[in-house]
Structure formats: C-alpha cells, structure tokens
Amino acid sequence: MQHGPAVRxxxxxxxxxxxxxxxxxxxxEAARLVGWHQSKVSRIETGTSSTKPADVRLLxxxxxxxxxxxxxxxxxxxxxxEGDGREHWWHAYRGVLPPTYRDFISLESxxxxxxxxxxxxxxxxxxxxxxxxxxxxxxxxxxxEDRLDTLVEVRLARQDVLRARPPLRMDAVxxxxxxxxxxxxxxxxxxxxxxxxxxxxxxQVRLQVLPFSAGAHIGxxxxxxxxxxxxxxxxxxxxxxxxxxxxYLERKEDLQAYTEAFNALRAHALSPGDSLxxxxxxxxxxxxxx
Length: 290
What we know:
Layout: H1 4-22, H2 27-34, H3 38-46, H4 53-62, H5 68-78, H6 99-110, E1 113-118, H7 129-139, H8 145-158, E2 169-175, H9 176-180, H10 186-200, E3 205-210, E4 224-228, E5 237-241, E6 246-249, H11 252-268, H12 272-288
Parallel strand pairs: 1-2, 2-3
Antiparallel strand pairs: 1-4, 4-5, 5-6
C-alpha cells in the first residue's frame, strides 16, 4: 500500500517501459533520441523520481505513441496538465485540497469505469448539494463557511465525469445503512433518495442495494473504489479511504482480491431493478411520513 503519487509514478514508469519495449528501443537508445542520459530514463521507468509532462511527451513522441486517449492518461499520471497544456480544473483549489484528494480526483477524471462499495455515505458522484454540505461539515471539524462552500463546490464539480463524452461508467453497491443514516435531516435525505433514483436510471450508472438481510459480508471491512482505465489495464488501482489519507493498491493480487470481493457483494445485493424499486419505495415512504 502506498500513497497516490508514488503509485502513479510507478504506474507511469511501468507503462512507459512497456511502450519503449514495444518500440524496440533500449533505455540507452531512448535516452539518445530525446537527448538525455540513460539514468534519467531509468529513474522515470522505476518511478524513483517525479516526471514532468513535457518529458513524458518527448518519450511518447520518441516511441511513436499517437493514441490520444493513452497520451492524455500518461500526461495526467505525470502531473497537472492535459494534452493541450491546460491545467486540470481542480488545481485551482490546490490551496484547499490535500494532495491525496487531488490525486484521487485526477484518477477519477481519467478513469473509464469505477466500481465502488459504500458502507456509510452516498458516493460523492451521486450526492446532492445539501447532502454534500452535511457530510462535509460532519467529516471536517472547524470548517468556516467559505471553505465549506469550496469543498462542496469541488464535490459537485467532480460529478461532471458522469456527464462527459464518453461518461465514466459507475458500478456502485450501497449498504442499506447508507440509505437509513439520517444525514442532514429528513428533507435532505428525501432529496438524496430522489437523486439516487434518477442516477439508477442512467445508462452509465449501475446501483445495487446490499440489504441488512444479507448479514455479515466481505464489505464490512470498509468502503473501497476500483478505478479502471480503457487504454491500459495495468493502470487499474484500488483506493481505500482513511480519516487523514487515502491508500492505493496496485498489485495484481490486490486488484484480483478486491475485484472478487466486489463481485461477491454484487451477488448478495439486490438486482439493479429491485434496487431501483427499493430506492423509490423508500423515497415515497419518506414523503408520506409526517
């Protein structure tokens, strides 16, 4: 387990090494092509040093990589700029967001799909503004209103990935506790349930409810997210959230274990159709409650 930036460097290095090999170049030949010392190429490929996006562009050009999506992903892993040189939107908030959160947003923005188990709160990509405000206020003590507004703004901006072209494909299993926990009060929860019903009807979103009747399950150890990337499956990563940081798992054994765990959770959860009916019924019951 490592923090996000280290994982991203290693993943970037491994992919660049694979691209170099496919181009039929040794590290020394690659270095000569871009005018570097061989040791710099080696440091980049082993992830022992940070890499500037401009350096990644040089290597991608030298390796003849013209896949726009793959290039954009490599540049995102390298730092803060997109292929056209524009900074990612979240870097405007670098003074407010911790590095691990910025790293999470970066991965989320570049992923083609995510699988997530949530055991406590609604996933950030599906939260209403009022719910996001209530959760953020509870999770971060001593927030002044300006900083709270900024963090909620970031949370809502992240949701654009579900409206992108192509959109992020989201597969979420929600423990029933997520839906029963009174966050922000009855009105906020009623609105949040309506939002979940709307989300469950989107073609890019698959929601399943894991009912209390399922009993103990593998997800009791806590929530997790699996990010997948269409351009390079070796870049897939598992993210575990903790109170003060996020941890990233990149080993194939870890990815396999969490993938199997997620599949088991889906098997124990209500089907997407039954989950939609459950969410709608729960929302209607809240509306009818005095």
